[in-house]
């Protein structure tokens, strides 16, 4: 709440908690305090002699029904002595070494009493472009959307309908109904779980068909979650043993912390059964508490998005914080992980970039495990034939450069550039987001598949060359079945296999990907011929011991056939499995990929239809990038009394409306 203390000239400016105070001296034994804030806060601090409370409340209700944001204005005349005493207390609280915030709150409460009502203001807060469409797409992606706002209940309800979060077919449950259902569940649980405290009640809260929605005010939220000060103090005394729990509770309220936790869990379960949840008139702390409850009891990944300083706690509590840079300052942006100018950009963040990032990371991890299992386990099979002498199956320099040069670039490009479908199709089919929610692309099952795939590849890469080298003779009559030639053939088979494997896993091909795959294989052969040449052996005889092995072994057609056979047998099962899975058991992504060309043509035709004629393109106006657009909205509905759910008529350009009730005398 913001309040100002006024004199004729500014003599002092200070900050009290989150409240701005300005002191101005009037020429005639008088100090006046002006306050503005929400009606629920102001009305609690009004004097019994304050006038026009009923008239102002009616005006506030009308404003709220038209989705306008409201504030109440009030004042209070105080004496110089009273102000001096309060200022001293404020100074002492501001330098307190412990509990400074609580001390400042208590001091503020001392002066914010017996206020006189001036009136109320209302200002238009129009939804941004694309909010209904964004919410609809996120809902199709099975993303639960909760609205936590400080607006009045009527304003929150109308905003819910305007952004299509609420529909006419939904059954709305308010705070008293929710509290009653939770109390009934608590009473029934006490009767059923007297012997078994670990038994869970799994029946749903809403058995009637159709969609359900929760609309809860901040007061009811404290009641439901047992967060009122008196209830918290009662539970704390019971926990410390200073107060005994009631012997026969009949109100369905929790008796201890364990039952409080069960009640909070029940609330989260009930909310997750609903298609929409709106918490209105909630404080920043309550917003953060709701987010923490979802994280605690649902083990879900939470994302909070807001544009004001009152959203900072919520943004910091969530796993992912998103700030909207707009008219309400930069506090939310500075506290967030991601920031953009419009709410509608959230659908690209989640359905496009978030999904692509998840797919890329899963492919990267699966391939990383596979290629290293295939590389390492060859040493394990070789140990059975070298007398467990710790001799390596590859040349030392190959082991050093395998993950650095020979197999790193293709998978890095997949992790950076790969996309199964383009951005337009990702937005058109929100269900493509579901595999990420289920974690189906990388889990224990996928890990063990990568493990067994690596084991299979390592067996093929070792035993086929090993069998080919037994009792063989080259074209020159010499036997190529030496250890060094075997190491070259095995390493060559491995490099070609793992680089072609990442090619099979790549969905989005570019010149860079082709260059990376072919370049990695070319780099391997180029480096191998260089480090196994006679020239480098002369310079460093102890470091490069495979002199002439590559040129000698790879001029044998028999060994090239061995490499081709090894690579073919390693990749053929993968090709068959991918073909069968996409043909017989296709996923949503596979179906979209199959008809990608068809959908892309449909998107192009749709864009051509939406594109205005050439003579109309020059008159397009630029839209603001603020969090709340400046185009005309609902402000002209203030005096009409019509509901937002009715079809609006043509309205004049009007951005802001202030209604003020008759002021008190001598103001």
From TrEMBL:
Subcellular location: Membrane
Residue stretches spanning the membrane: 6-24, 364-385, 397-417, 447-468, 508-527, 560-581
Keywords: ATP-binding, Magnesium, Membrane, Metal-binding, Nucleotide-binding, Translocase, Transmembrane, Transmembrane helix
GO function term, MF aspect, one: ATP binding
GO CC term, one of those recorded: trans-Golgi network
Gene: ATP8B1
Gene3D superfamilies linked: Calcium-transporting ATPase, cytoplasmic domain N, HAD superfamily/HAD-like
Name used for this protein in its record: Phospholipid-transporting ATPase IC
Gene Ontology biological process terms, A to Z: Golgi organization; phospholipid translocation
Membrane topology value: Multi-pass membrane protein
Region Disordered, residue ranges: 236-257, 598-627, 639-667
Domain P-type ATPase C-terminal: 333-587
Biased composition (Basic and acidic residues): 650-659
Pfam families tied to this protein: Cation_ATPase, PhoLip_ATPase_C
First-listed, main subcellular location of the protein, grouped into a coarse class: membrane
Native source species: Astyanax mexicanus (Blind cave fish)
